[in-house]
Every structure is written in C-alpha cells, then in structure tokens.
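Hey L., structure's done. Input below.
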Amino acid sequence: MMTSVKRPALLVLLTAIGWLALTLACSLPARLPFQATETPTASPTATNTPTPTPTPTPDSAAILAQAEQARFAGDWDRAFELYQQARALAGDPGLQAATLYGEARTYLAADRWSEALAVLEQLLADYPTDETAARAHFLRGQALADLGRPSEAAEAYKAYRESGDAVLIEDALELEADARLQAGDGAQAAALYLQIVLARPPGEALDVQVKLGNAYSQQDSTEAAIEQYLQVYNGSSNDFVKAQMDLVLGRSY
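Output:
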C-alpha cells in the first residue's frame, strides 16, 4: 500500500521540476554554444602635437644695426632693404629719422645723388628737429654739389653751419666757399676763405690761400690775388706747389 501511494507523488514532483527547468530556459537570452564574448574596444588616446616655438621678430634697432653693417660692407642693395624694413617697424621718430639718414648715406656712397637728395629732403621735412637734421644739411650740400647745383649746395652748407649742432664747421665753411666760387660768387667765396686763413696759424692755410687768390682773381682783384699766390710760393717747400704758383703768377701779371 505504501509503495503505490509514494510513486504517484514522485511522478508529480518530477513533472513539476521539469516544467520549472523549461520555464527558466525560456527566460534566458539565446546564445549559441561556445559563442565568443565581444571584447570592448578601447577608445584611441589623443596625441598632443607640440606647438612650434615662433621665431622672434628682430626689432627695428637690431635691423638698423644690420643695415649699417651692410652699408659698411658695400652691400648697397641689402642696406637699402634693411633700412626700409627698420623704418616700417620703428615707432620711435628718432629711429625713423636714423633709417632715413643711413639710407641717404648709402645712396651717396653708391653715387646715386638724386635719390640721396630726395631722402635727405624727406628727413628734413619730417624730422626737422632731430639730431640727424644738421648732418642731413651737410650731406644735402654734398648731393647738390655733385648734381652740379653749387648755389643750392652753398646754402645747404650754410644751413649746417647755422644749425647749432654743427661739428665740422671749418669743413662746411670751406665747402660753402668752394660752392660759391663755382657758382660765380667770388666776393662771398673770398670772405669765407679769408675766415679760414685768419683762424689758422701763419703758413698753415696755404691750400686755402690758393683758393682765396682764385676768388680775388674772379673779381678782377689782381693785386690781392697776386699777394696770396706769392705768400703760398714763399711759404711752401713743395716744388710742385712752387711751379704751380709760378704759372699762376705769370698769368696774373
């Protein structure tokens, strides 16, 4: 009796377990046997690209110094380029004036008188009180003399002498006298030459006395001219100078 009772209960228990297993199997996600599990891909790490260090731009003063070196070396084209670069960068009026002055000197060294004159006149117009202005008058006189404009050259040398910042006063005085003599103004030339002669010790202005004699001669002041030529003849020990004075004196009598 007991065996018949326990068997139906066991069957019921096994049936319930089977249904439970089936229910659990249906609720799980479908997966193929031995299906590979996907490995998550790592995100790429950003690479920091180094920023190149910018090349420092030379300041106007440094470029001006390079321009001066190029001028001393006789590299005119490079000097012009650097002076213009420096002027474009310069905010200081003094530096701008300095670039113009250097550029003008380069033009003079290259025998480009007209271009030198144009730059000097720009300097004097734009920076009339700059320390380079006085020297610009002197260079302007040189440019005008080389261009065959002696009257204007004389005025430029005079402006230099009267600027208050002149250093080469006697040089400017003689160059002004030369220009006035070339322009046919013997009286003014003689007055300027005489200042130089009187300022030097006796016998140390023989070269200027020759010019003074020429200025007197241009005015038909023959006696005054002869007096200067004789002083040069007697004061010189150079045979060539004596021969030249002999020739001039022979023409003056």
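The two ends are 184 Å apart (CA to CA). Residues 2-27 form the longest helix (26 residues).

-- N.
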